[in-house]
Amino acid sequence: PMAWGALSVDMICFCIIKKYLIIANYNVGILIYGFKQDSYSRRGGVAHPLFNFLSEDANDIVFSTSRKREYLNDKTLYFDLKNTKIDIELSYFTHIVICAAITNLQECHDDQKVCKLVNVTNTIRLIDHALENHCFVIFLSSNLVFNGKKPFYQYNDKPNPNTFYGKLKLDVENHIRDIKSDCVAVLRMTKVMTNPVAFIEKWKEESRAGIDIIVFTNRMLAPIHINIAVKVIYLLINKKKSGIFHLSGNVEISYYEYANKLFENDNGSLRLLKPCLDPAHFDCISYNSLENHLPD
Question: pTM (2 decimals)?
Fold first, then answer.
C-alpha cells in the first residue's frame, strides 16, 4: 500500500472520511472546525466538548480539525484558518460547525491584521465553500456584537460592538445576512463555562499565592454551562433552521458576586477578594446577557 506521506492532503482526507462513511450507517456527517488543545487563544473552548458529545450518537459521523499536526488522527483533520486554502472535501459532510477563532480580546486588539484574516476573511471563505457544497453551517458568534450598555439584548436588536473582536464577529454576521442563505445559523452566546475557565484559574492561582484577587463590581456575566451550550448546538444541527439565535444564562451577576459564590466555603480566598470598578467601564455597568432565542 502507498505510504501516507506520499498522498496529498486531499487524498488523505478522502481516504479517512470515506472509510467511516462506508462502514457506518450514518444519518449526519458533522465537521467541527476547531479543537480544545488547538485553540488560538490557548484556552479551553466549545469544540472539544462538542466533539465528545456528538460522538456519543452512533448515528452521526463526527470529525474535528486541528492546525497542530501532533493532534491529527483518523477523526481529526488538518486545517489552519490562517491559510487561505481549504484542503478538506466538504461535500462529504451535511453540517459544519465553526468554533475556530482567535477569541482573546487583547490579542485581537493588538494584532488586528492577523485576527481579521482568521476571524473574518478566511472564516467567510470557509462558510461560502461549505454552502457551495450544500452543508448546513453553524457559526458561533458572541454577545460582544453589542456594547453591553443594557442587559438581555434581543436577537433583533441592532448590533453596536465596542471591541475589535466584536466587530469581527459582526463582519461575519453581516456577510451571512447579505448572502441570504437558508442554510446558515448564527448562535450568539454569552460566557461559556468550559474546563478550565481562564479567569477562575487565575483567581485560584492568586489565592494559592496569597495575593489580592481583583474582581470587578461593574462588569457582569451571564454564564452558560458547557453542557448546555453543546446541547443547544446539537439542537441547531437537528433543526437545520437558519437565522440568528441567542443563548445566555438566565441570571446575570457581577464578577465580584461570582467570586463570592465560587469561594463561599474558602474563607482565606474570600478575604483576598478586592472589589473594584473595571477601568474600561469606570462610569457604567458592562452587561453580558442576551435574551434567549432558539428554534421551536
Answer: 0.88
